[in-house]
Amino acid sequence: MLLRIPGVYPPQDDTRLLADALAEQPFDARTRVLDICTGTGALALRVAELGAGTVTAIAISRRAVLTARLNARIRGCTIRVLQGNLTAPVRGEHFDLVISNPPYVPYVPAEDDRIPGIGMARAWDAGTDGRALLDRICAQAPDVLAPGGTLLLAQSALSGVGKTQVMLEEQGLQVDVVARREIPFGPVLTGRRRMLAARGIITAGQRNEEIVVIRGRQHA
Ligand SMILES: C[S@@+](CC[C@H](N)C(=O)[O-])C[C@H]1O[C@@H](n2cnc3c(N)ncnc32)[C@H](O)[C@@H]1O
């Protein structure tokens, strides 16, 4: 069972795709895991239950922090849940596995790159190209990865998989796509179809998007 305080992102297809990719990862009692953008804590709980040694989860929203802490207590998992912006709360620390399913939906209106400071949309809106958080994660994650560590990052193909790959490679990571799933547009994208088609991000009549999990491996 997973509790969810109103306003916190409910686990969805992207959460499940990343959860499935996690099952392929080796875990033992020494594995230190960081979940950036944790929401309900679903993914952090999954790695804890898969046998990770320590799990740290970060959320910007107080409601998400509370939700993740409550879920950890209900499930009997020990997870450190911190409030803050991406990797800021763990600067100077290093992790063997860093996972994230961040906001990645192109924002409407598209005239500027603002991202919402409050409210439910903060869970998905991510600037004009959907990369406001992805770019920051690509820039910050290598700093918190231990030598030999792995990043698993979920995103939509609408937000530039190639750009994520290039950014991570430029940081010295070995990059590949480890999972893909085609899913129908949810209510947010359905409501933005005209705008996204007008901007050339989707084709007219498109009703599905591909979500992917990108893996970046730090040299040992
Ligand atoms: C797409 S949801 C994913 C939630 C959860 N990881 C899952 O897969 O179900 C993205 C989450 O990122 C959080 N978030 C947005 N901006 C953030 C930031 N700058 N730092 C940390 N978390 C952030 C949102 O509050 C939201 O819970």
Structure description:
InterPro entries: DNA_methylase_N6_adenine_CS, Euk-Arch_PrmC-MTase, PrmC-related, SAM-dependent_MTases_sf, Small_mtfrase_dom. Keywords: Methyltransferase, S-adenosyl-L-methionine, Transferase. The radius of gyration is 17 Å and the shape is globular. The chain is built from seven helices and seven strands. It is of the alpha/beta class and 220 residues long. The chain has a single domain (27-217), classed as Rossmann fold (3-Layer(aba) Sandwich), CATH 3.40.50.150. It binds S-adenosylmethionine. S-adenosylmethionine binds at residues 9, 11, 15, 37-40, 42-43, 58-61, 64, 85-86, 101-103, 122-124, 133.
Q: Summed up, what is this model?
A:
This protein is α/β, with parallel strands linked by helices. The protein has helices spanning 13-22, 42-49, 62-75, 132-144, 161-170, 187-191, 193-198; strands spanning 32-36, 54-59, 80-83, 95-100, 145-156, 174-184, 208-217. The model has no long low-confidence stretch (mean pLDDT 94).
Q: How would you summarize the topology of this molecule?
A:
Layout: H1 13-22, E1 32-36, H2 42-49, E2 54-59, H3 62-75, E3 80-83, E4 95-100, H4 132-144, E5 145-156, H5 161-170, E6 174-184, H6 187-191, H7 193-198, E7 208-217
Parallel strand pairs: 1-2, 1-4, 2-3, 4-5
Antiparallel strand pairs: 5-7, 6-7
Helix pairs in contact: 1-2
The protein binds S-adenosylmethionine.
